[in-house]
Amino acid sequence: MVDFPEARRARAARLRPVADPGPQLRYRVVHGYRRAFRMAGRGPALVLIHGIGDSSETWAELIPGLARTHTVIAPDLLGHGASDKPRADYSVAAYANGVRDLLTTLGIESATLVGHSLGGGVAMQFAYQFPERTERLILVGAGGVGREVNPALRLVSLPGAHLALSALRLPGMRLQVGLAIRLMKILNTDLGQDAPDLLHLVDALPDDTSRNAFIRTLRAVVDWRGQVVTMLDRCYLTAGMPTMLLWGDRDSVVPVRHAYGAHEAMPGSRLEIFEGAGHFPFHTDPARFLALVEEFTSTTAPADWSRDHWRALLREGRPGAYPDAPEGAVAELREASERSAT
């Protein structure tokens, strides 16, 4: 019997071991709502916070590597993934409270926070509300820096967005959207870099409950003019907090210029740009992402928070918030304050 190479390859594919799906979802009920999360490893705590419409699954490829040296906790934020989706407060501050409460139930007092997109805003808000529980910040394509955001998200914040999202699930629409994505990739557009991941987020909204939670979350941070919350007015409070910014230089959701603005505003921060990557650099180059996180956490000491230090920072205030500051700086900071999260 002749054994063709194609047949051998087919048999090998059938016999190939199934890839490890990573840590399975666990659940905790907090304030009466079920919170889903993944947890793995031992060592210093590392919390991975996903972006809007996403879930802990987005970190699946990275969790096993990070768990070699850390206790990794990756929650599904309320309204996302397998967590409950009530008619509730989906503000950035509320999400920070939710992360704190979940960590408390798990017996974790402090952690390094890794936040992507909306999750970056949640991580920054957590550090602002609970500095004594924050060891380091790693912000990935984080929201809450500038007003700009992808126009599609601004449109979804408008009335009628629920119908538009529902229409994307009509028969034939998936094919048309897929063709549009392929065209954007062929044309080498920035949106083409992110479109497959963004389309996955739409696929993760299978019913009215999921779509309602998504829209409520989005409207808490975005309106027709762009992002409505900011961290710029409080970046000076990160003095002494090890902070690393990771960004794709072709991010079509949160422009890379926001990375440079945040880097300048956050004393002592470190900036790493992923060339050719979009809004999900940890998907584009997971090996580099993993190496950077491991190197950063192993070579920096956790923030040494003290009440006296916090008081001194608040009393001194943010740079530029003085009468003799340049007019442009005053206007920029005033605009930032109008979009403050609290």
Indicate the topology.
Layout: H1 5-15, E1 26-30, E2 33-40, E3 45-49, H2 63-66, E4 71-75, H3 92-105, E5 111-116, H4 118-129, E6 134-140, H5 151-156, H6 161-167, H7 173-186, H8 190-203, H9 208-219, E7 222-223, E8 226-227, E9 243-248, H10 257-265, E10 270-274, H11 281-284, H12 286-299, H13 307-316, H14 327-338
Parallel strand pairs: 3-4, 3-5, 5-6, 6-9, 9-10
Antiparallel strand pairs: 1-2, 2-4, 7-8
Helix pairs in contact: 3-4, 6-9, 7-8
Question: What can you see in these coordinates?
Answer:
The chain has an 8-stranded mixed sheet with strand order 1-2-4-3-5-6-9-10, with helices on both faces. It is 42% helix and 15% strand. Helix 3 packs across helix 4 and helix 6 crosses helix 9. The protein has 14 helices and 10 strands. 39% of the residues are buried. It is globular and about 50 Å long. The chain is α/β, with parallel strands linked by helices. The termini are far apart. The N terminus is likely disordered.
